[in-house]
Amino acid sequence: MKRNYHRTILIIAALAAVTAANAASWRINSDAAKHAHFSDINAAMSSDAVVDGDTLYLDPGSKLTTQQNVTKRVTIIGCGHTTAGRPYEYATITGGLYLKADNIKVEAIYINSRTQIEACNITVERCRCGFITYGGTLAQRATIRQCYVLNRIYGPGGNSSVTKRLNTAYWTIENCIIIVSSTYHSIYGLYKAVIRNNYIKQNYNNLSYQPLSNLKECTVTNNIILKTGGSYWNYVYRANSLTDGNIFQHNVMSNKGANFYYSSTYYNTFQKDKNILLGSADEAAVFALAGSNDELYRLKDSSPAKGCADDGGDCGPYGGLYPYVPGGIPQGMPVPVTATVPSNAQDGHIRISIQTTIQKQ
Predict the structure, then answer these.
(1) Which of 105, 174, 213, 285 has the most C-beta neighbours closer than 10 Å?
(2) Cα-atom radius of gyration of the chain, to the nearest Å?
(3) Which region, left, alpha or beta, applies to residue 45 given φ > 0 means left and ψ of -120 to 50 means alpha?
(4) Cβ proximity of 211 and 189 under 8 Å
(5) Who's near 224: CB < 8 A, 6+ residues apart?
(6) What are the pLDDT digits (tens) for 221-271?
(7) What pLDDT, on a 0 to 100 scale, did the predictor assign at position 12?
(8) How far is CA 141 from CA 47, 113, 197, 286, in A?
(9) Pseudo-torsion of CA 116, 120, 126, 127, nearest 10°?
(10) Is pLDDT of 314 > 90?
(11) What is the pTM of this model?
(12) In whole angstroms, how far apart are CA 213 and each of 121, 143, 154?
């Protein structure tokens, strides 16, 4: 019996090795003159040559303007989401990205619209996103990490039916910058989620829209949470019926008045000695606000978020196990820093000089 067990393990390991060895890489570029393998993700999904385990690379400057449907277990990697300090454009998806197969990973892409999660074990990492939502199907254990989200992240709602709540159970949102300046909550409607080491900001002047809303049995820790819009910014958390069981610890939060969450009738664990309430302080009290975009949210030397995390480190996106990477540079890939193309040939040759760097983390 023991011998058969070991034989089974060896067979599984051999099959995994064969799968890894056979995994292929494909280029995607919307510009036909670039001679990539496919013009967009949809074309790659329609090809029998692309199989589970493959990797799709979006060329710099590629612009996918129609809805992209990912129906195979693949990894999709772009080149980051900024042009600062780089001699090339980022790749963009403006028609929406719909993730419809389990175990998809998306990294380092500017998704300037909807990212819709319709399957389990999805990872969206180092992307700049419009908003991230679930699609009404089973979509458990999603990971949203090191992303710059300019709208919202939301599920069905903590006060929804058990079936709907379970659709988005066990999400992890970590080391993200999430900034909402419109009529939406920053993070809404998740169940049993872990929300840690983020900067969560709601900048809309209305009591109905808060940084956190409709969470149930979630752990919220090591975050910086600010409601900065208008006169209603003292409420960083708004609870609705059946929304309870959340744990709030080691967060740095705006709190103009005595109220932290909307109603004291819901059973949330909020220990004042394990959270820092900023009173009337604003972003300038927490962040260095130097540079542009995501660089603004590094902590200043005197920030109250320094050393306040549960592990003794810093709260916010630049702390924790997965510190935020400015510009979303993909890990382990060479990234051009400078490129020199002479205007004239020498000895019948054009000598192009390219300097690259590699993001190690």
Answers:
(1) 213
(2) 22
(3) alpha
(4) no
(5) 198, 199, 200, 251, 252, 253, 286, 305, 315, 316
(6) 999 988 765 554 444 554 443 367 788 888 888 765 434 444 444 445 555
(7) 43
(8) 28, 22, 18, 31
(9) -10
(10) yes
(11) 0.84
(12) 23, 19, 9
